[in-house]
Amino acid sequence: MPDRSRLFSVMRWGMTAAVAVALVAPPAMSDAAPGTAGIDAWIVSGRKGPIGAGVHSPDGDGQTLTKRVARGRTVTFTISAKRTGSGRSSVTFLGCAGAPGFAVTYRLPDGSVVTYDVTGSGYDYRQVDVGDVVRMKLSIDTTG
Fold first, then answer.
1. Which end of the chain is less enclosed by CB atoms within 10 A, N or C?
2. Where are the domains of the chain?
3. For residue 137, what is the enclosing H or E element?
4. Which of 57, 80, 64 has its CA nearest to residue 128?
5. pTM for the whole structure
6. Continuous H helices in the chain
7. What is the pLDDT of residues 61-72, one digit of tens each?
8. Taking every pair of C-alpha atoms in the chain, what is the biggest distance, in angstroms?
9. How large is the average pLDDT for residues 5-24?
10. Cβ neighbours of residue 36 under 8 Å, at least 6 residues apart?
């Protein structure tokens, strides 16, 4: 019997064959103390993870979590980002939209759906202080 599952990889930076999520921290905001902005991000799904915590890679090396999911099923990832550096800044989640064979939904911790923002110009968490962690859930629904 052929393997009817689909392979999904979620990573912090860059693109991969299925779904990629980039997290961006612009320079510290002008109304904050002078400083630098940075992000430490990680991904968790089920008992896998956290993957990527403490890893800084321009191509996603060491920051990729891969899950195999059967057709007609859903897999969920929690993507977390911790502000590093100094000063106050925003954190932007920018992700891929669905494609033939799967649909994606991005949700805030309160359940609000922000898929159009994330797959458009990005969803901004504004005024994030150093040490604060922001999160988003990514659900991938497969189709037959």
1. N
2. 5-142
3. strand 133-142
4. 80
5. 0.77
6. 115-119
7. 777 888 878 888
8. 61
9. 42
10. 27, 28, 85, 86, 87
